[in-house]
Write a structure and sequence with these properties.
alpha/beta; Enolase-like, domain 1; TIM Barrel; 13 helices; 35% helix; binds magnesium ion
């Protein structure tokens, strides 16, 4: 009997204070369903509407096994294609269809991608601190947990807290997170010099610029950081200015990871084909799920570009599992960002909600052990959700403030 899509539902839940949107695709076979991630934490209601009002009616009754056909149908059906809201909606369904495919095959997803190239996936974690001393203490805690690659920031991504006006900001300026790019560059270079003095060169260090400086400043920062031997410099250039990567490449050998905000293949194709980046780090629900992510991973492999998929807290467990299943089977895997889903006694808490609440709502999550993440051997993504527990943690819709980043003259700067 063909497996047909019967119902497509969304589940909104915020167990750790971050809005997560999970899509559940139910089939005509009793008990056979799939889960996918459609999390766009700051516009989750818009994505929910696209899934429920447009994709549900479009796909009801169709063959759940024809993933490529259904992906293209969802992508093309509204005539105007792409963008983070539509891509996240498509991703929710796409991941759920892959989950169903794995359950039908009775195999974990990595097997459908060709099997494991490695037993587990090495991850990097985020260490922060108000000063070098505190940062070093946090780095040490991660090293004790077995982490070998650590992203180092001092005071987050730089900038004052929302609402405070530093000296020199013109009167009449809007509230925001105020940035001082000159101070940020000086402090960052000093920070990494100090980290190398204290920690040596054995440990792999990463730094995230988060697109918060002008392109020419990013070129200068990369040059100044060159002696500090970074594993990579993350998102130095905004998605709107990626032509500058050519100049950055010309002037510096610092490895570049780019792509957290990408949504369209035009944004990565020439960067990869011209070897302008070393690591591609898209957020796989933002590009439309597992189907385009696998194509991207294989495309990047042809050019010697490695993967470093985005793995933040505003991503639901089916998406974390999708990252890890692709990583396990990818010859060009680089490293995986990991935002801290571990057995509760391991957690260095970074999230706002109750400790361990994510593990109350979701089961079968990839597990962290000694620097690596392991998936379970259940068919599909291997993750399940307890909907009654999910309902205990409703999502909230607030005006986002951390993205209102501004330069000292009061104008906006990409966050
Ligand atoms: Mg980042």
């Amino acid at each position: 009997m063909p497996v047909r899509i019967e119902k497509i539902r969304t589940i909104c839940t915020a167990p750790e204070g971050i809005n997560l949107l999970v899509v559940k695709v139910e089939t005509n076979q009793p008990g056979l369903y799939g889960l996918g991630c459609a999390t766009f934490a700051y516009r989750h209601l818009a994505v929910k509407l696209v899934v429920e009002e447009y994709l549900g009616p479009l796909l009801r009754g169709r063959d759940a096994e024809s993933i490529e056909e259904l992906w293209q149908l969802m992508h093309q059906n509204a005539y105007w294609r792409n963008g983070p809201i539509v891509n996240n909606a498509i991703s929710g369904v796409d991941m759920a269809l892959w989950d169903i495919k794995g359950k039908l095959a009775r195999m974990p997803l990595y097997q459908l991608f060709g099997g494991k190239c490695r037993p587990a996936v090495p991850v990097y974690r985020h260490a922060d601190g108000r000063d070098v001393q505190e940062l070093c203490e946090n780095i040490l805690r991660f090293q004790e947990m077995g982490i070998q690659t650590i992203r180092c920031q001092c005071g987050g991504y730089g900038g004052e807290s929302f609402g405070s006006f530093p000296a020199g900001v013109p009167s009449g300026a809007h509230r925001g997170v105020y940035l001082d790019s000159g101070a940020y560059i000086r402090n960052t270079v000093k920070l990494f010099e100090e980290l190398r003095n204290r920690l040596g060169y054995e440990i792999r260090l990463v730094h995230d610029v988060h697109e918060r400086i002008a392109p020419s400043e990013a070129v200068r920062l990369a040059r100044l950081l060159e002696p500090m031997d970074l594993f990579f410099l993350e998102d130095p250039i905004s998605a709107e200015q990626t032509e500058w990567l050519r100049e950055l490449r010309r002037q510096s050998s610092v490895p570049i990871a780019e792509g957290e905000l990408f949504t369209h293949p035009h944004e990565w194709r020439s960067l990869i084909a011209e070897h302008l980046i070393d690591f591609i780090r898209v957020h796989i629900s933002q590009i439309g799920g597992i189907t385009p992510a696998r194509k991207l991973q294989i495309f990047a492999e042809q050019y010697g570009v490695r993967t470093a998929w985005h793995g933040p807290g505003d991503m639901s467990p089916p998406a974390h599992a999708a990252n890890i299943h692709i990583d396990l089977a990818a010859m060009n895997f680089g490293v995986q960002e990991w935002s801290g889903i571990e057995p509760p006694n391991y957690v260095i808490q970074e999230l706002k909600g109750p400790h361990g609440a994510l593990l109350e709502v979701f089961s079968g999550l990839p597990e962290y052990r000694d620097g690596c993440v392991y998936v379970n051997e259940k068919p599909g993504l291997g993750v399940d959700i307890d909907e009654s527990k999910a309902a205990k943690y409703p999502c909230e819709t607030n005006v986002v403030t951390w993205t209102q980043t501004r330069k000292k003259d009061g104008s906006l700067q990409t966050p």
